[in-house]
Amino acid sequence: MSEENLAKQELEYQKSKVFIVVEIIEYIPNSVLIKTIIKKSTGNVSAVSFDTGETLMEKISPFDTFIQVIDGTAEVLINDVSNHLDTGQSIIIPAHARNTIKANVRFKMISTIIKSGYEEVS
Known about the structure:
Helix content is 3%, strand content 53%. It is mainly beta. The radius of gyration is 14 Å and the shape is globular.
């Protein structure tokens, strides 16, 4: 996936106000859209939408990442093992694991990263 197909919107949503996550993020043709819901030094929560055929290329994070699909179906590869997640299903990507997220069909997810309790790894 090229950088021009990745759109980021960093903002925090108003605290103490009800919202529906699946409705705050839209699908953009040929793109992955990331909207930050909460961003703190100890971690962050983001809503992410993937159009059909889009991929977040392989990366390794020093932190555990919790993924929950909130619309559609995702493919999450963790250390070359493919996991298919349907709406409502979740998976934890372990710290230091190689991972790739693919949209064989378009989908939306919540990504939660918790940074506390880990040492920085070079």
